[in-house]
Amino acid sequence: MTYKREFYLKKSPDKIFDPIIYIDDLELFFVKATTKLNRGPAPDKNGPDWPYWFDENINGYYWSEVNGRIPVIFNCVWLPLKKRYYRCEALFVMPEIGSLVEVSFTPEKLPQWQAIVRNTQQFLLSHIKR
Questions:
Q1: What is the DSSP letter of 58?
Q2: Into how many domains does the chain fold?
Q3: Where in the sequence is the domain holding 35, given as residue range(s)?
């Protein structure tokens, strides 16, 4: 998953990163990325579209590192209207079945990320026909 982290953290002129931090409670690294959108002129501030017009995307990226490897990475997407993250996607590889697995969940469940990954792996392994 190192390639995915490098993709998420790739620098570009329209993308700004906060400093990378380690969150002890989660046992995960985290960085916030803000990407400026090229959307043209903004609507009138008194117009009906103004509350729904945004000029940036915000993503929160979390990942674990084990011996220099990244077994799982999370992409949490920001909901501007509510000013909070609303969905996280976990990506991890299951070599037992030769698959990249993606699991979506709400950010409130991020503290249970290890159980989510483990339970997903157990579920898939128990339901695969060999």
A1: E
A2: 1
A3: 2-127
From CA 59, how far away is CA 70, in angstroms rounded? Answer: 18
* Tokens describing residue 13: 């002129």
Q: What is the pLDDT of residues 5-64, one digit of tens each?
A: 999 999 999 999 999 999 999 999 999 999 988 777 777 778 777 666 677 889 999 999
pTM, to two decimals: 0.86
Q: How many CA atoms lie within 13 A of 87 on its CB side?
A: 7
* Distance (Å, whole) CA 112 – CA 54: 31
* 98 Cβ contact partners less than 8 Å away, ≥ 6 residues apart: none
Structure tokens at 62: 């979390």
88 phi, psi to nearest 5 deg: -120, 140
